[in-house]
From TrEMBL, chains A, B:
The lineage of its organism: Bacteria, Bacillati, Chloroflexota, Dehalococcoidia, Dehalococcoidales. This is Phosphoribosylformylglycinamidine cyclo-ligase. Residues 143-302 form the PurM-like C-terminal domain. It comes from Dehalogenimonas formicexedens. The keyword Nucleotide-binding applies. InterPro entries: PurM-like_C_dom (IPR010918), PurM-like_C_sf (IPR036676), PurM-like_N (IPR016188), PurM-like_N_sf (IPR036921), PurM_cligase (IPR004733). The gene is purM.
Amino acid sequence: MTPNVLAGPGFFGGMFEVPCGYNKPVLVSSCDGVGTKLRIASAMGKHDTVGIDIVNHSVNDILTCGATPLFFLDYIAMGKLDPVLIAEVVKGLSTACQQVGCALIGGETAEMPGLYHGNDYDLAGFIVGIVEKDDILNGQSIKPGDAVLGLPSTGLHTNGYSLARRVLGETASAMIMRYPILTGSVGEALITPHRSYLADLKPVLTEIKGLAHITGGGFTDNIPRTLPPGTAVHITKGAWEVLPIFELIQELGNVADAEMYRVFNMGIGMVIVAEPAKVPSLLKSMPEAKVIGEVTADKGLGRVTID
Amino acid sequence: MTPNVLAGPGFFGGMFEVPCGYNKPVLVSSCDGVGTKLRIASAMGKHDTVGIDIVNHSVNDILTCGATPLFFLDYIAMGKLDPVLIAEVVKGLSTACQQVGCALIGGETAEMPGLYHGNDYDLAGFIVGIVEKDDILNGQSIKPGDAVLGLPSTGLHTNGYSLARRVLGETASAMIMRYPILTGSVGEALITPHRSYLADLKPVLTEIKGLAHITGGGFTDNIPRTLPPGTAVHITKGAWEVLPIFELIQELGNVADAEMYRVFNMGIGMVIVAEPAKVPSLLKSMPEAKVIGEVTADKGLGRVTID
């Protein structure tokens, strides 16, 4: 796929030549799992998208530092290896890696009878990306008055499935349920893969001040990671359309607003902080983006307020 | 631990500056799990060594390409997080990383109720190391007449536990069994951590032609990975002392010799190929090493013959 991948060493890994053109190359790595979204995949018997989830989740994680993905390794573990199921999982991994220009360089498929039961499996991923040291995005220049933009998510992405499963169920019959608010079934809404924001954000990385990937912990826990001390973010409800699946979960589960924004991305998968003067060109470059709030001084009311 | 580790980005990963001094730096990565050695740890209620296993396994894997470890990430998954157990696992990871000068840069601890039961957990690791492109060990210069050396293992390392458990059991009471041939209990022999060969081999990497880390697949599957076409290796039985735990498994399980050498390391955890003229200085530098065989022409009798 890329000339940087060298002939394999024969173990479950790989060799990748550091790309030229970096003065002070910094490797950015992340490790994560798909979590209990796997139970949705199992209930639906659909395993070709969870690989997309873990790759795109990982790509977005390192993107918050300004990093471009280089290579990815996967870890799949089952009680008894099911070659058909594993081929589906790998198809998802492979598709997503191709789409983001990342080499699927290796991985381990572990058979562990007794630990995993039936067709249960776990899937984790490891990514390594690269960024020029002076170009690392760290949010340090963020100040009150800066604009907060959001890029839409495709659904729950890879987080909030414990609450979602509690409200909507996790059986095969729960997955085929339909509600007027959804265009498809519950299962289709829940299995929708995590999207990557690399293509949207790569062209504008030098134009922005900070990024927050809205994963576990929702708005409340993820946005503060990119904020310097003394600053907070105010998010304006109604500035974007909350996805129907979240409205359904909130209504059926009678979940408080604060909890919804702490658990789910609510339709915004990536939050961008930029100076106000950059907003017009950012909106032009990323037509899906919306201004969803602004940076304020931290008045001790919480780093993220939403109303 | 190292100045190359940059301030964390706030997600479960990390940033690591590529070390200076490389002309064409190549990243060597590997992903692996501890496998069913975890069941031995559970039976013994001893979780502070499995971290050592996965780190050293990974370090040895990338060492076969000539790579020095840079950083490591772990993936731990449980049904319900047990902070005491996880602290023990991380202690092992951390100790081993320190010993090999590798930064434990991040990781993910996933709670997945329903997938893992009771105190069951899975542990996988991901390592990235570095090697100068021109210094990659690839065995290409290996030719008939070259010497084959071995460095001793500490036990099963991280492979062969399915067979070992079948023969010796995997209950707490099986673990406290004692046999005259063993100095300690069965559990003590089985839980002994995988050792790293980095300190032994780093000083002599330019003196050798190829390395094979004896993991799953034993001698039979691992040695050919470092051999160029047309060559084979003959291993001389009796050239080293087979560890008592392997003798016990073979005797109790009535396992054929060929199977033993295909499943286990039999007391040799790393195989080194070098030209005969280098052997005296290699043995001086690595007093534990032994000449255990030689490279021959491949006569179609198998890439690895043992007798």
